[in-house]
């Protein structure tokens, strides 16, 4: 992979956003991280239950016998059998490596494992005496700081326009929500890590009308406008 001449813009600083930033910075790729909140973490920092994984070192330590197929069947059943089976398979199969990466590369102990709703085995991992969302976000932030020379952080900021020419992204406009100042960033790569559109009934009706009566997450810091711009672009 050749190093981009322009920075990669990552929008959203939850678990997906910070993971993307860290993996890019590891490769010495310059990154601009944008979040409209006044601190990093998004909704991920509020996560309080744990992260599910199968065939992990923690499960083995506690003598828990589990399987990828068992995890998949539980996931399919919990989703009311209406979820994307390919995505569910990917989630389950890659969960072992996800837990290993958090433990060994990021330094999150995840030394406890419990059985929570919808699971037939103990496979929800967390560390002792600390909420998992806060811990994972904190550890990722510490890792990112190690590469801060290639990172520009724009908090209290929001994308107001994505500039597209001949079907390709060439830049974007960012609004400073405090000073009400707009800035233009040249980039040809954007990682949208702003979460879903569960807060917007309008977008659910437009893109997934079949899901309008199903459970939705209502979080006021969901970035609906950014997602809409991304879809239209």
Spatial order of strands in the largest sheet: 6-2-1-10
Radius of gyration equals 19 Å
**Beta-strand share of residues:** 15-25%
Structural class: alpha/beta
Number of strand elements: 10
Discrete helix count = 8
Which whole number gives the mean pLDDT? 88
CATH homologous superfamily (4th level) name of the largest domain: FAD/NAD(P)-binding domain
CATH topology of the largest domain: FAD/NAD(P)-binding domain
Biggest pleated sheet? 4 strands, parallel
Overall tally of domains: 2
Q: Uncertain regions: pLDDT < 50 for 5+ in a row?
A: 229-233
The proportion of residues forming helix, as a percent range, comes to 25-40%
Characterization of this structure:
The protein has 233 residues and is of the alpha/beta class. It folds into 2 domains: 8-192, 3-Layer(bba) Sandwich (FAD/NAD(P)-binding domain); 197-232. Helices cover 34% and strands 20% of the residues. The strands form 3 sheets. A 4-stranded parallel beta sheet has the order 6-2-1-10, with helices on both faces. It has a 3-stranded antiparallel beta sheet with strand order 3-5-4, with no helix packed on it. Strands 7-8-9 form a 3-stranded antiparallel beta sheet. InterPro entries: FAD-dep_OxRdtase_2_FAD-bd, FAD-oxidoreductase_2, FAD/NAD-bd_sf. It comes from Wickerhamomyces anomalus (strain ATCC 58044 / CBS 1984 / NCYC 433 / NRRL Y-366-8). It holds the Pfam family FAD_binding_2. Its cofactor is FAD.
